[in-house]
Write a structure and sequence with these properties.
By secondary structure, the chain is an alpha/beta fold. The chain has six helices and seven strands. The chain has a single domain, classed as 3-Layer(aba) Sandwich (Glutaredoxin). A seven-stranded mixed sheet has the order 2-1-5-4-3-6-7.
């Protein structure tokens, strides 16, 4: 009788463990940031990469233009992959590209820009990543299209490609 109780207890325990494991595997714990399209751009202060001058985003994003805010780093391989697209966009006078350098060595960031070209009208420093996280970025590269009223029109997570280039150009019309 005692062996039967132990066997039943072991079976119940195994079934319980299986049930818990099964439930845990079906539960998604993937972080998905809030959808920020249609929201006003967060106001923030940052230093400029090239001259270390402090600037407020409200002053920077104040012209009657469409802005592209690109979060990047020199150590980010996908950022290197999308750089050519940013260079193409920088030739368009109806858009202004602002870079936000994410958790980077400033010497390496300057070297990256000198090597690949500078598509940005300004490059800001996000040394500890708090600005990027507050903007909703959970990895880089991330690109935001922002209108003249500082409203975020579109967020691109990951590498800009030919399809995203078409979307950006359609937003400029």
């Amino acid at each position: 009788m005692r062996k039967k109780k132990i066997s039943v207890s072991v079976i119940i325990f195994v079934v319980f463990c299986f049930f818990v494991l099964f439930k845990a595997l079906n539960k998604s714990n993937t972080y998905v940031p809030d959808i920020i399209s249609g929201k006003k751009l967060l106001s923030f202060n940052a230093k400029k990469l090239l001259n270390n001058e402090q600037v407020n985003s409200d002053v920077l994003f104040n012209e009657n233009k469409i802005y592209l805010l690109n979060i990047w780093a020199s150590w980010c391989v996908p950022c290197r992959d999308e750089h050519n697209i940013l260079m193409q966009l920088s030739d368009n006078p109806s858009i202004e590209i602002i870079g936000l350098n994410y958790r980077d060595n400033l010497i390496n960031a300057k070297k990256f820009i000198n090597e690949l070209g500078n598509p940005y009208s300004e490059i800001l420093i996000d040394k500890d990543g708090t600005i990027s996280i507050a903007l909703g970025a959970y990895g880089i590269p991330v690109t935001y299209i922002i209108d003249k009223n500082q409203i975020i029109l579109k967020q691109f997570v990951g590498v800009l490609n030919d399809q995203s280039l078409k979307e950006i150009k359609s937003l400029l019309k």
